[in-house]
Design a protein that fits this description.
This protein has 354 residues and is an alpha/beta fold. 53% of the residues lie in helices and 7% in strands. Bound molecules: zinc ion. Zinc ion binds next to helix 3.
Length: 354
Amino acid sequence: MRFADVIGNADVAEALVSMADTGRIAHAMLMYENEGSGALALAIAYVQYLNCSNPQNGDSCGECPSCRQMSKLIHPDVHFVFPVNKGPKTSDDKPTSESYMKYWRELALANPYFTESDLQRAIGIESKNGLIAVAEARSIISRLSLTAVADGYKTVIFYLPEKMNQETANRLLKMVEEPPEKTLFIFITHSPEKVLQTIFSRCQSIRVMPLTKEEAARVQEMNPFDDNSEYEMFMELFADLMRAVTSGDLQAALECGESIAGLESREKQKGFCTFASQCIRKIFMIQQNMSQIAAVAEHEYEFYSDMAGKCGKGFCLRFITNIEKVVAMIDRNVSSKILFCDLVNRMYLSIWPR
Ligand SMILES: [Zn+2]
């Protein structure tokens, strides 16, 4: 990404170029923004500029080998760290950002203005909190201790350092304080007050301003990336399944089960399971009179509250236990046709016991 491609915050871009041109490069920098304002785009453009072998007129060339690697986010000396958790899209028991790098790249390349919830959806951990855990610190320290592959800067772009716990920060602190030569840390935060003081105090901070209405519209236009399509497809499947089960139509429910088993990959099938668990949690919250924390979209409220009335209290908890088993079995290569047929049967019996 070149500065020319960044929308908004021309002043910040100018300041970054001037820092690079005059050699006043901060080894640790903290960019703070309201989410979606483009700090990541600016950070990527800045690192691309620093590493470009032929920068011109205050921007990277976009054509040299380093720029080409940056344009795919595969530069070997540029590392990304972001909050993660265990989820259906990785089999790693202690996942780090590396475990999800493929999904991060897809998301950031399609739309570097993504929000935290876009990221959670992209890596399949919607129902969990993302964290930057100590395994991440170990991974970063070992990668930074390797010699740079190219001639430029080794950089770590940290998305949401506020999700880092004390132990992780302690591990990283020495490196942030006294980074190896030509090593940069760029932190991007949405809540600077939550960034651990030990890290914050060592950074030069930069405010990234919210986009104007026109700029936000351009972001929208430039990124026809439709991350809602999977959501809508899953929602339709889930709603059909729930309506069939609650109305006592076992045949229709089994057909929904077959459609889920027919999703093109195991990852998609597990993705659906995660999605369905979240939906069921919403129903459960409504049943518990906690709809204010169920976070149900207005246009979906009628559906959820209808379902909350139709399935008994034990249904949700049984469903969550059952679907967790399904996810584990998918990983063990059990036939998904059998798994989802069994799940549908259990759901049905849970409401219509024989
Ligand atoms: Zn270049």
